[in-house]
Amino acid sequence: MCLRDSYGAPAALARLEVVVAEARTRFGEQDERFTAGLGELAQRLQAADTWAQGEPVRVAAIVSAAPVPEWLRAVRGSPPPVPSTPLRTTQPQQPQQPQQPQPQPDGAGRTAWAAWAANRAGPDPAAGAWAQAPRLPEPRQHYNIASPPGFGGAGGGGGKGDGRGGYPKELRINARDWSDSRKLDVTTTFEHFQVWKDRAMMFLSKERPDVRALLMWAETQSQADLEAHLRAKSAHFGVDDLAAVEYGLHDGIKIIVVDSLLGRARNCVGKGCELWRALVAEWSGDGNHVRDAKARRYLDPPRAKDVADLWAKLPAWERLGEEVISSGLPLPEWMRNTSLEKLLPTQLLNTLIARSELKDYPVRLAWVKSQMEHTRGVQQAAAYGPGNGKDASGDVYMNSVEAAAAAEAPARGLTLALPTPLYPGGWAHA
Fold it and tell me: Among 88, 138, 260, 403, fewest CB within 10 Å belongs to which?
């Protein structure tokens, strides 16, 4: 047993030395391959860096060799080429060299740059003949999308369709603006037509006072006069987009009339002013009997019951007088005074007659309006008053007793506190 151990130990040691030697050889080969790979990677990175540093020079050469495009012939002188600076390349595993000062542009380069900067406002004498061409006129900006205001030269406005810069605001008619208002029907009475006309004027000329003035002029014209003078009057009112306004008004009126009146819209397709004139003429009328009826109604109005009723009848009476005068019938001042006396309530009329200084019609009308405003002011002041502790039906408010008791409590406490001195001898000291 001992003999076998003495021969086996050297053999195992010899095998271990062989294994260690083979491992050391393989690890050495692996270190050599890793070092060689790192060196090759460094060489490739250096080559890529060298190529990237030389790219600006190649691009500048390509740009300099390219011909001048046609669209640049009207542009003023272009800047001279930038003086190139040689790029410093480094080699791997070399001792660091002291940094050399970079060459500066020569005097000619600086002069060229200064000349180009000085001639930016005018043609460059050193440039070619294509640069001597005059500057093209800048087109007038009609549209502008700058938003919000305050940014850009236009400040968010000044474009076409926004009402600034000499261009009218485009006509926009939204069907939802009419809401549930009553549409014009064949059975609409004259009084209801006046209400519809006021709302339709607001609906059709939203944010366009020039269109409103055009509609007010069109409703007083005949069909022949409207067709002959429409363009001149639209230019006078400032309606530059007449064709678009005509189509917009025509489609807008069709929204606010019932289906049975659409046949009148088909007779004047694309002519909104003519459709508006036809509807106003149909419901207003322009015959002699209509003018006479309006004049008789103005001269003999129904008497108002009180001042509250006068607030509703006086504006309609004044409007009727304007229509009578516009139809060509004169209304002297004495006739207006007589009609006004018939309109006023009895109590206000007696006060007016008692005032001898109120003779002229404008003075009387102004006095009546001042009395109406005074009466309304008194009613509003009474609404803010303390009241008498009762509601409109005569019932006592439940809080009136508590309010009176609360008002008496401080006075009673003060009465009880006065006879009692604060301390003995207090009244003598007081």
Answer: 138
Task: Please give the single-letter amino acid code of residue 260.
Answer: S
Burial of 171 (0-12, 13-18, 19+ CB in 10 A): buried
Distance CA 74, CA 131 (A): 6
The token pair at 50 is 């060298």
CA count, 13 A, side-chain hemisphere, 223: 8
Nearest to 113 by CA among 101, 128, 126: 126
Q: How many CB atoms lie within 10 A of CB 77?
A: 19
**H/E segment holding residue 352:** helix 346-354
Q: What pTM was estimated for this model as a whole?
A: 0.44
Cα–Cα dist 233/386, whole Å: 59
Tokens of 379: 């009613």
How far the first Cα of the chain sits from its last, in Å, is: 137
CA of residue 35 relative to chain centroid, distance:
72
What's the angle, vertex CA 41, arms to CA 37 and CA 47, rounded to 5? Answer: 145
Distance separating alpha carbons of residues 240 and 214, to the nearest angstrom: 12
**Domain boundaries of the chain, sorted by first residue:** 175-284, 288-382
The proportion of the chain whose per-residue pLDDT surpasses 90, expressed as a percent, equals 24
What CA dihedral angle connects 264, 265, 271 and 276, to 10 degrees? 60
Q: How far apart are CA 251 and CA 265, in angstroms?
A: 9
Calpha distance 344→302 (Å, rounded)? 9
**Beta-carbon contacts of residue 92 (< 8 Å; ≥ 6 apart):** 42, 43, 46
Q: What is the DSSP code string of 252-287?
A: HHHHTB-GGGHHHHHTTTT-HHHHHHHHHHHHH--S
